[in-house]
Specification:
Strand order of the largest sheet of chain A: 1-3-2
Structural class of chain B: mainly alpha
Number of helices of chain B: 10
Radius of gyration of chain B: 20 Å
Shape of chain B: globular
Distance between the termini of chain B: 43 Å
Shape of chain A: elongated
Order of helices and strands of chain B: HHHHHHHHHH
Structural class of chain A: mainly alpha
Largest interface: A-B, 22 and 28 residues
Largest sheet of chain B: none
Number of strands of chain B: 0
Strand content of chain B: under 5%
Distance between the termini of chain A: 35 Å
Low-confidence stretches of chain A: none
Number of strands of chain A: 3
Order of helices and strands of chain A: HEHHEEH
Largest sheet of chain A: 3 strands, antiparallel
Oligomer: heterodimer
Low-confidence stretches of chain B: 52-64, 228-234
């Protein structure tokens, strides 16, 4: 199962947010920033955004499209889509297990 | 804002600068964003991950890891030389000998000199045409530094060896495209020859130190050399 972001250190979490943000279609840098803020509830700085984008692009998880003016959209690659799906399923499993245990403890 | 973006390595800027500035134009950065950009620039320098065909480009070859090592060593050496001058200038007189107590200042000069030797040795890797000659200069500066510990007359021989070899290195820098840095180092080397640990002329180490810091900053910014002089290396 592909897992291409968990070893990215401080960029692991921002990278996952970016992959999730791109999962409904291509977005440029500023659109990713605002979308990530809406998803996570906290702002992502431009330095962090581009540090993560460079890593994701270098690993073939996203690809850059032709820029329009100064806005360059990015989209998920096939590998990126498989990676974000695997990550979210793993997190969903973790969430289910955790909530199940909490409910069991509460009883 | 472009000043902050210039802290990123050249290869990163070639790929991302335009769209990055576009993002900053749409969302003017806060103070925390500016710190985030600064950290991003440091990260990009330490872990360059610019997309490409996987082969290091000429720029990367020139910069890493020797360019970084040279940069750090040159800046550290420059700082030590500059601080040494200040400490020597303000050192108290030893009543018993009537001379200044220059022990700390001399130790800093020794450490600064070893750092600049390391900077010259590391710079050899980014000057492939003259690598052997530059390494010999670096080793000579290191030996001259150690000779300072030997007291008279080795101290004088060592210190003059450092200055002569630094002057040669500075001339080579100037001839290989780093004209401003090379000339700054050359002029400051000529000045530092006049230093005296017993009077304010000790402060002449400050421009010398600043010139090394300038070289360190140049190496950090991806200083490129254009070989025009051969010292016999292939």
């Amino acid at each position: 199962m592909p897992d291409g972001v968990s070893d990215l250190g401080r960029f692991a979490e921002p990278s996952l947010y970016i992959l999730v943000s791109l999962s409904d279609g291509p977005k440029h840098g500023y659109a990713i920033m605002t979308d990530v803020e809406a998803i996570s509830g906290s702002a992502m700085g431009p330095g962090t955004l581009y540090g993560a984008l460079a890593r994701l692009e270098g690993r073939g998880l996203i690809e850059a499209l032709e820029p329009v003016d100064r806005r360059r959209p990015y989209r998920l690659t096939g590998l990126g889509e498989a990676t974000v799906r695997a990550q979210l399923e793993r997190l969903a499993g973790l969430t289910q297990t955790g909530l199940g245990r909490l409910h069991g403890t509460a009883k | 804002m472009t000043a902050l973006v210039r802290l990123y390595p050249r290869a990163w800027r070639d790929r991302y600068e335009d769209e990055f500035l576009g993002v900053l134009a749409e969302a003017p950065p806060s103070f925390l964003d500016r710190i985030d950009i600064l950290l991003g620039a440091m990260d990009a320098r330490l872990h360059p991950e610019v997309p490409g065909d996987g082969r290091p480009n000429e720029h990367d070859v020139r910069r890493a890891p020797s360019g970084r090592l040279g940069s750090i060593a040159a800046i550290a050496g420059g700082l030590l030389w500059a601080v040494a001058g200040v400490i020597l200038a303000v050192a108290p007189l030893d009543p018993s000998s009537g001379n200044k107590d220059s022990t700390l200042g001399v130790v800093l000069v020794l450490l600064g000199s070893l750092c600049t030797a390391a900077a010259v040795l590391a710079t050899a890797d980014v000057m492939p045409r003259n690598a052997r000659g530059v390494r010999a200069m670096g080793l000579g500066i290191a030996l001259g530094s150690v000779a300072i510990l030997g007291g008279w007359p080795l101290l004088i021989i060592g210190i003059f060896a450092i200055w002569i070899l630094t002057g040669l290195f500075a001339g080579l820098l100037a001839l290989q495209g780093a004209r401003l840095i090379g000339l700054a180092l050359l002029v400051s080397t000529a000045l530092v020859v006049g230093m005296n640990t017993e009077d304010p002329r000790a402060l002449l180490t400050i421009p010398f130190g600043l010139a090394w810091i300038l070289l360190g900053a140049g190496l950090a910014a991806g200083l490129r050399f254009t070989p025009t002089v051969s010292t016999g290396d292939a």
